[in-house]
Specification:
Layout: E1 13-19, H1 25-38, E2 41-49, H2 50-60, H3 66-92, E3 100-106, H4 108-119, E4 123-126, H5 133-141, E5 146-148, E6 155-161, H6 168-180, E7 183-191, E8 196-198, E9 204-206, H7 209-222, E10 226-231, H8 233-244, E11 246-251, E12 257-259, E13 262-263, H9 264-271, E14 275-278
Parallel strand pairs: 1-2, 1-4, 2-3, 4-5, 6-7, 6-11, 7-10, 11-14
Antiparallel strand pairs: 5-14, 8-9, 12-13
């Protein structure tokens, strides 16, 4: 049954990036499920990455004149487009019956940003390679929701904390779980590293540990099925997701960079074994 409920507009137009370097099997599977539930438009964006072409050029171990290099690149692009067509036909159309497809040559993040603008996309559904740092930049750059597919069970976990207003996540989790018949749990983490409270305007106010605990208790009184944990946000979230075998973990806007050397969203995406939705 196709559902179009309030609050689920983020699934209206989904972009699924497919890199010439890595096929996102889990992202395709989860896109199929989501599009069937919400009647989403799906755009498959196949990106022939420039580094793929450079690998072939280096492997040829041949000195090219300018014209020879141009001819060689054109030949490579033609071959890669044929591969893209074959992959889309055999590995995507067998899962998702209706979608629009586009094959481009370029840099992964840049092509996704262009496609988002061109298609007015509402969400990106992807799957990350743990060793590819460049692709993690999407978590910081993109302003629209990002679904990072990894699989899991039938529990939807809404991640809340003293680091966010905690308005969008509880509502989304309730609406989504009602539609998909998943069990919903709100996890409130008292982050002991950042002892602040964030209001609905995104303003931070320093708070003592007792004030943080009091705020968490008040949050739990407003909602059903709230679990409270204390610790480092990303560590507690990963542990809890494993405990309940989450099928989806929903995170709001609080998970941005905290320092030049630490990216919390990247840490979560790298270490969690369950699908994550960054609402943004």
């Amino acid at each position: 049954m196709i559902c179009n409920f309030n609050g689920m507009e983020i699934f209206k137009k989904m972009i699924v990036p497919v890199s010439s370097e890595f096929f996102p099997e889990k992202a395709v599977v989860e896109t199929k499920k989501l599009s069937e539930i919400f009647g989403s438009e799906v755009i498959i964006l196949y990106i022939i990455e420039k580094k793929t072409l450079k690998k072939f050029e280096m492997a040829s171990n041949t000195f090219f004149t300018y014209q020879q290099k141009k001819n060689f690149e054109e030949k490579l692009i033609k071959e890669q487009k044929e591969i893209a067509t074959d992959i889309i036909k055999k590995r995507i159309r067998s899962n998702i019956k209706k979608f629009e497809e586009k094959v481009v040559v370029g840099e992964y993040s840049e092509e996704i940003e262009k496609a988002i603008e061109d298609y007015k996309a509402t969400i990106v559904v992807t799957e990350f390679e743990k060793w590819n740092v460049l692709k993690y930049r999407l978590l910081e750059k993109l302003k629209l929701p990002i679904w990072v597919a990894a699989g899991g069970g039938d529990v939807v976990v809404g991640a809340c904390s003293n680091l966010a207003p905690n308005v969008k996540v509880p509502k989304f989790v309730k609406d989504f779980s009602d539609i998909t018949n998943h069990k919903a749990i709100l996890l409130y983490i008292i982050d002991i590293e950042d002892r602040v409270l964030v209001n609905e305007n995104g303003e931070k106010v320093k708070a003592s540990i007792d004030e943080l605990r009091s705020n968490a208790k008040k949050f739990a009184e407003r909602y059903e099925k709230v679990e409270i944990r204390e610790g480092i946000f990303e560590e507690e979230l990963v542990k809890f997701a494993d405990e309940v075998n989450a099928g989806l973990v929903v995170i709001g806007r609080e998970m941005k960079k905290r320092s030049m050397n630490r990216e919390v969203r990247k840490d979560i995406a790298e270490n969690i074994h369950h699908s994550v939705l960054f609402l943004n």
